[in-house]
Design goal:
Elements lengths: L1 H17 L4 E2 H8 L5 H14 L2 E5 L5 E5 L13 E5 L5 E3 L19 E5 L6
Parallel strand pairs: 4-6
Antiparallel strand pairs: 1-3, 2-3, 4-5
This protein binds zinc ion (3 copies).
GO molecular function, one term: zinc ion binding
Cofactor: Zn(2+)
Organism: Chryseobacterium glaciei
Length: 124
Amino acid sequence: MLKRNTKTKQLILDSLKNSKSAVSQDILLKELGDKVDRATIYRALNSFCDDGIAHKILSDDGKYYFAFCVNCSEKAHKHNHYHFRCLSCGKIECIPNEIEVKLPVGYQSVNFNGFISGYCANCS
Ligand SMILES: [Zn+2]
Ligand SMILES: [Zn+2]
Ligand SMILES: [Zn+2]
């Protein structure tokens, strides 16, 4: 059973990695639905976040999306970047530039949630 689990997780990880934009549980279910069930996808995606290989994005459509991390580790997740949702094709992307936000003295940031919607280069 453990082995099967690992294989399934690998399948989900591959889809996440190969996708050029962030994926939601629904997108993965459409892609892998004949092999993996919804709960397994959900668990796998959240465990990738814990492991430092993916990050979670709350979109302005109210859904969670997941993107593969490029320069993160389990201890040092850093995502001070905006996410962009295209209103035409629905794609959600990481905008790679890291943002530096100036906070008042004594404040420490833990999470940055920047979100932009508009039209991507293919659609505008
Ligand atoms: Zn990360
Ligand atoms: Zn687009
Ligand atoms: Zn991102």
